[in-house]
Amino acid sequence: MQCLVEGISHAGEGVARIAGKATFIPYAIPGETVAVTIIEEKKSYQRALLQQVIHPSQDRCQPNCRHYFTCGGCSFQHVDYPRQLTLKRQIVEETLRRVGGIEIPVSPVIGMETPWHYRNKVEWHLSSQSGREMFGYFMNQSHEMVDIENCPLISQAMQAVSLYIKNHRKILRVPDKCEITVRQSSLGQIMIIFSGNQTSQIDFALLADHCKEISFYSIDQNITRLHYGETRLEEKLGEFKFEISPLAFFQVNHQQNEKMLAVIKDYARLQRSDSLLDAYCGTGSIALSLAREVKRVVGVENFKAAIKDAKRNAFLNNITNTQFIKGACEEIVPALTDDFDVIILDPPRSGCKKELIQEVINKSPRSLIYVSCNPATLARDLALFEDSVYQVKEIQPIDMFPQTSHVETVVLMSKVDK
Question: 289 with 220: CB under 8 angstroms?
Answer without folding.
Answer: no
